[in-house]
Amino acid sequence: ADAIISLRDVSQTYRVKKRGSFAGTSALRAVRNVTFDIVKGDSFAVVGESGCGKSTLMRLLSRLERPSGGSVLCEGRDIAGLSGAELLGFRRKLQLVLQDPFNSLPPRTGIGAMLEAPLRTHGWRDPRKIREKVRAVMDDVGLPVSLYDDLPLGLSAGQRQRVNVARAMVLDPEILLMDETLSALDQTEQFKLLALFDKLQRAHGLTYIYISHDLAMVRKACNRIAVMYLGEVVELADNDRLFFDPGHPYTRALLSAMPSLEARRYRPEDCLMEGEPPSPIDLPIGCAFRSRCPQAFGPCLDRPPLLSVRGARDLASCHLVPGPGATLAGAA
Ligand code: SF4
Ligand code: MG
Q1: For the domain 3-230, what is the CATH code?
Q2: What tens digit of pLDDT does each residue of 321-331 get?
Q3: Where are the domains of the chain?
Q4: Which helix (H) or strand (E) holds 139?
Q5: 183 alpha carbon – ligand 1 mean position (Å)
């Protein structure tokens, strides 16, 4: 399959001031050795608790940051090296849709003007063509064109989120990167937005990347899912496998917290997860999940598990998962 985005051994380390010290820094390893492909037409999700590195990954994918190690490729080209017209081209191709429909829109700018702005940035000059394009996009995302000159003040949360989507769509992107895009919406609005995303995807051949903590939404919207824990991808799987046959104890713990049928497939005692993840400044030796894992055993203490292959193309990194890279010696 042709990857539109590929991550190759991507890491991001920040220098942070040492606690209780005026001099000296520690390394905060926010993202560690992440490798995956996003195929054109995918609805790809990156899930995990807050602090797992998914926000950093979002910034790396959109080139708001460059990685400290490894590379992010778009159609085979390392995006770290892009500048000038090529960078502008990448920014058009991959558009960000942010979370908060109440704070992300400038309050004193009309809806139409808001959607015209990115076109001007990208070199559009003809006012008539600009207006035409904006009207077409408003129509495409289900915003009445009569809202063209309105301020965002009177809009519902769902309409505001549609404005955000329109702002991204106006540049005819190929990839939409959704950072908790639906989190602030109620169930009904979420459902409507997901139906819209589905329609837009089919009409424009879009690829979606969802950064989310909401597994119920991901179950509905995404075909492929990367689960992150402490900066690493611990499981990478297609939707059905992830929800019905997860390989990693952390994935099972996340699923057991879902208020749905899937959750009842797992015995709570197998999914218990207590406390907070350790600090990404003081990473544990061995498996990063061991301090919270109900199934931790000998090898987990001193050997980090490798990603093991499950089925045709899924991966999980746990000593209990057999397969290339797995180490079952010592398992009871
Ligand atoms: Fe749990 Fe060990 Fe697997 Fe880590 S390697 S998830 S500690 S069983
Ligand atoms: Mg975060």
Answers
A1: 3.40.50.300
A2: 987 654 434 33
A3: 3-230, 237-332
A4: helix 127-140
A5: 30
How far is Cα 233 from Cα 36, in angstroms, rounded to an integer?
9
- Ligand in closest contact with the CA of 57: 2
Helix H or strand E segment including 27:
strand 25-39
Place of tokens 């398992």: 331
For residue 332, name the pLDDT band (cuts at 50, 70, 90). very low
CA 248, CA 266: separation in Å to the nearest integer? 13
67-103 pLDDT, tens digit per residue, is 999 999 999 999 999 999 999 999 999 999 977 656 7
First to last CA, the chain: 39
* pTM, full prediction: 0.91
Arithmetic mean of pLDDT over the chain: 89
Structure tokens at 248: 């990693």
CA-nearest residue, atom 8 of ligand 1: 296
Among all bound ligands, the one having the nearest atom to the CA of 251 is: 1
> Which 3 state secondary structure label does DSSP give 214?
coil
Contact present, 144 and 172 (Cβ < 8 Å): no
Question: What sign results for the dihedral spanned by CA atoms 184, 44, 38, 265?
Answer: positive
Helix (H/G/I), strand (E/B), else coil: 36 = strand
Question: Bridge-partner residues for 242, per DSSP?
Answer: none
**Cβ 194 vs Cβ 139: under 8 Å:** no
Report which of 109, 215, 216 is spatially closest to residue 160, judged by C-alpha positions.
109
Q: Is 125 helix (H, G, I), strand (E, B) or coil?
A: coil
Atom of ligand 1 nearest to the CA of 300: 2
User: What pLDDT is stored for residue 311 in this prediction?
Assistant: 86
Cα(148)–Cα(161) distance, integer angstroms: 15
Predicted confidence at residue 182, as pLDDT, reads 84
Q: How far, in Å, from the CA of 299 to the mean position of ligand 1? A: 9
